[in-house]
Amino acid sequence: MVSPADIAREYVENWNRRDWKAYRELLDDQYTYTGGDGQTQRGPEAGMAVGQMFATAFPDGRIDLRQIHTAGDTAIVEFTGRGTHSGDLMGIAPTGRHISIPVITVLTVRGGRIVSEREYMDMAHMMRQLGVMPAAATA
Known about the structure:
By secondary structure, this protein is of the alpha+beta class. The chain has helices at about 5-15, 20-25, 45-55, 125-130; strands at about 25-35, 40, 60-70, 75-85, 100-110, 115-120.
């Protein structure tokens, strides 16, 4: 049987290759995505939309895996997202700036498919790198 870590690796590799068919096949029909804002989106099309949004905004984007930890049907995936902002990102016009942002995503896997994804990243950190948010104040 395929482990949650194997599914997590395949999910990341599919995003890096922009293999949307294989990416979609890993998402269960009951898939949910919860982002850092706490809002839950339902259905595999939600996962596709998030993945494709970042791929469009960062056409040269890569996910560099750091670690995968598993517990039962859960994979906790630590990675760094990197890329050059060359496309629209949530209404933000391309800045041409390169970003590097640490991300944690928690995947629940059942029957070889992802049923839920909870993603944690510091969007303010990314917005500062893009130059659309002021730098954090220092003491």
